[in-house]
Design brief:
elongated; six-stranded mixed β-sheet; 368 residues; Rossmann fold; alpha/beta; four-stranded parallel β-sheet
Length: 368
């Protein structure tokens, strides 16, 4: 029989959730509370030698040890002890127990000042609506942050018949973004209701730059990147870092272009086809461009630093009346930071271009 004290310790370590499926459990069967999703205090090594995973010597020694117990909902208690007993040896259950209790410990160790308001922004990319689901993004914040109020702020422009290849799209969507941002986010920042933001955004690059400019860098924010392989928003904090390549123009011309080739290469010819020969091309690229190249949050910090430096150098070189024409092939996180790092009163305005199928780069919006 499991003592009341041991049962309480187990309940605390498991946060009252099934160690198998994380389902919230109310009360437990042994204590007589059968109201709701009741839980079973299950032995890893059975408390009798003849029980599941029982042992002639260890069963009696471990019968009241919290280290030998798990909380399970009824279906999974039956699964590991009866239906698929052979598939759940002691080692596997101990591994499940450790993983669950570690997860609970990490979550409960988060201090109140680690709360962050989740901002989800999605707009149509090509023919596809870009939905940024709360269920997919909130786990990417852990263990550094957790969602404030257990919910999110959603700016999602869906259902539009327009696509980002049409000029009308660009006369409508930037205004929609600005209005929704001012209503849902800016007003709460000004009221000091939001102290930190976690930003998950998926939209055409110029709109992401606009979102970054609306955010600014006064309110602290973590910007996340959607990855294809493995799919998800989690940053990988290890592995190879990006080798950035900075380029300065060889001659000073009237027009200024900033070529950002991180997700894919952009030839100078594509810029000249839009701007003409009278253009100074500044550039920031990487040694091996690719869709999933931005995997480490430290690389995004370095991108911010380099862009900040480029903005200053262009202004020093070309003067305060210049306009920076931006030709981007960049990850979504870089696009947001491109607008966020810009200082509206000090830096030059940006004219952001977007690749249009069959038409090359087209100017889509200006960040004044």
């Amino acid at each position: 029989m499991v003592s009341v004290k041991t049962r309480a310790v187990l309940w605390a370590r498991g946060a009252g959730r099934c160690y198998y499926c994380n389902r919230s459990l109310i009360g437990d069967y042994e204590s007589g509370n059968e109201d709701g999703n009741f839980g079973f205090v299950a032995h890893i090594v059975a408390d009798t030698p003849g029980g599941p995973r029982g042992d002639r010597v260890r069963s009696s020694l471990l019968s009241d040890s919290a280290a030998n117990l798990m909380l399970l909902c009824y279906p999974h208690h039956k699964l590991v002890d009866v239906d698929e007993l052979a598939n759940y040896p002691e080692a596997r259950l101990l591994e499940m127990k450790t993983a669950h209790e570690d997860r609970v410990r990490i979550v409960t160790d988060l201090a109140p000042d680690r709360a962050s308001h989740v901002l989800r922004y999605g707009a149509k990319v090509g023919d596809h609506n870009s939905l940024v689901a709360y269920g997919r993004v909130k786990d990417a914040m852990m263990p550094r942050r957790y969602p404030a109020n257990g919910s999110s702020i959603g700016i999602e422009i869906i259902g539009s018949v327009l696509t980002d290849g049409e000029d009308q799209f660009w006369s409508v969507e930037p205004t929609n973004l600005s209005r929704q941002f001012n209503t849902l986010v800016k007003s709460r920042i000004e009221a000091r209701d939001i102290a930190h933001l976690s930003v998950f955004a998926l939209a055409p690059i110029p709109l992401l730059v606009q979102l970054g400019a609306l955010l600014g860098d006064i309110t602290p924010a973590d910007i996340y990147q959607l990855h294809r392989e493995p799919a998800g928003w989690n940053w990988a904090e290890d592995g190879n870092r990006i080798e950035f390549l900075l380029r300065r123009p060889t001659a000073i011309h009237k027009n200024v272009a900033l070529k950002l080739a991180i997700s894919a290469d952009i030839t100078d010819r594509r810029v000249v086809e839009v701007m003409g020969e009278d253009v100074s091309i500044w550039g920031l690229g990487v040694k091996c461009p690719g869709n999933d190249v931005m995997r480490n949050s430290a690389d995004l910090v370095e991108f911010r630093r380099l862009i900040r430096s480029i903005y200053n150098d262009i202004k020093t070189t070309h003067g305060e009346d210049a306009l920076i024409h931006v030709f981007p092939a960049i990850p979504v996180s870089c696009a947001v930071e491109l607008g966020r790092v810009r200082m509206p009163k000090a830096d030059l305005p940006l004219r952001v271009y977007d690749q249009t199928a069959g038409a090359g780069f087209r100017p889509r919006l200006t960040v004044p």
